[in-house]
Amino acid sequence: MFLFFIEIFFLNIYVKLKEVLDIKLFKTKKSPNNKDLYNDRIPQGSYLIIDEKGQKLGIFNRTEALKLSEEKEIDIVIVNADSNPMVARLMDYQKHRYNQQKKNRETKKKAQVSVLKEIRLSPTINTHDLNTKLKQVHKFLKQGNKVKISMRFRGRMINNYKLGETVLKQIIQDLTSVAQIENPLKLQGNQFTAVLTPSK
């Protein structure tokens, strides 16, 4: 009799311990994202199935939905898990995932804030320094930034502004393959300025 109570005691401890472990495992288990709910990953429930052409095929349970997917030799992907019934679509999952990733990259790219960078040139700049400045302009434009090119004339140098204007026009012309002119070249006081934006 004593041994019987001992067995019951340890059995209760085992059951309680198992319940605690099961709860912890359940809590730490991560649910897949909606975009990952496809094929055998779709949960039990009712589904409104839409085919590849966008036509509604009706309401199916999980078993029927998977069977339909297998018969048509195409993936079944949940596109709305919050509705009742859930909405699933017959499609190529890998292609769908690729398009989603591409769309996310494009959205992220458009969301990037364009910064106005400035490159200052001297009317007496030598060829080596000019090439270095041009490389900087190319770098800024490729990063998606706008570039303000400026040339300041000091003292009597303003009398030779035509020469500086010619140099700047040539620079802008050389950049037309990677840039568009947002603000055309103009002389304000003793300084020429122009703003370029990356080509689309």
TrEMBL record:
This is Translation initiation factor IF-3. GO terms for cellular component: cytosol; membrane. Belongs to the IF-3 family. Keywords: Initiation factor, Protein biosynthesis. The keyword Protein biosynthesis applies. It comes from the Bacteria. Gene3D superfamilies: Translation initiation factor 3 (IF-3), C-terminal domain, Translation initiation factor 3 (IF-3), N-terminal domain. InterPro entries: T_IF-3_C_sf, T_IF-3_N_sf, Translation_initiation_fac_3, Translation_initiation_fac_3_C, Translation_initiation_fac_3_N. GO terms for molecular function: ribosome binding; translation initiation factor activity. The keyword Protein biosynthesis applies. Residues 39-106 form the Translation initiation factor 3 N-terminal domain.
